Amino acid sequence: MVTCHQCETEINQATEICPHCGADLTLPVPGAEPIKNKPKPTLAKILLRWAILLGVLLGAMWSFLWFVVTPRTGNVALQAETQAVQTLADVRAALASYAATQDGVFPATLEPLGPPVRQTAQLAQSNGYQLVYTPGPPGADGAIHSYSLEARAGNYGYRNFYTDPSGIVRATSENRPATSIDPPAR
Hints:
- By secondary structure, the chain is an alpha+beta fold.
- It is built from three helices and six strands; from the N terminus they run ββαααββββ.
- α2 (about 75-100) runs antiparallel to α3.
- The chain is about 35% helix and about 15% strand.
- A hairpin with a 6-residue loop joins β4 and β5.
- Among the domains are: about 1-30; about 75-170, no CATH class.
- The strands form two sheets. The protein has a four-stranded antiparallel sheet. Strands 1-2 form a two-stranded antiparallel ribbon.
- It has helices at about 45-70, 75-100, 115-125; strands spanning about 1-5, 10, 130-135, 145-155, 160-165, 170.
């Protein structure tokens, strides 16, 4: 609600003419200060505002990336290879434990070894290695008594690793899977 500047009666804000006295409400009020129009901002001010806004946005994005993305320090290949060898050792220990409870018989897949082995394999995969379990041929009794376990590098320049029930981890720097004839890893 507004008041008419002529008769000072409260009227609806949407009216242009006072219904009581007929005063034109669109004209400036006599004796009131004239309304000053704000000057348009200059091109320099507009550019400065946009530069500040862009700076704040870029700073926020940089901060986000700095805190979220973990920097990799040190020798990344060595860290990945160490994790691959540790994965082979963990899975070999789980296979030995399984065989001890099953009268020397190894499983046809790694699934019977459960979630710990699955998580270890996923950790190796996150470091660029694929874990490959190959059960040996079935014996005369139809059971599997040997296996081979490989950690194959997905990144060029990383070594490939191999182990079997003997526990010796073998490695090759060549672009091929490691085998039982490769030298032991150091």
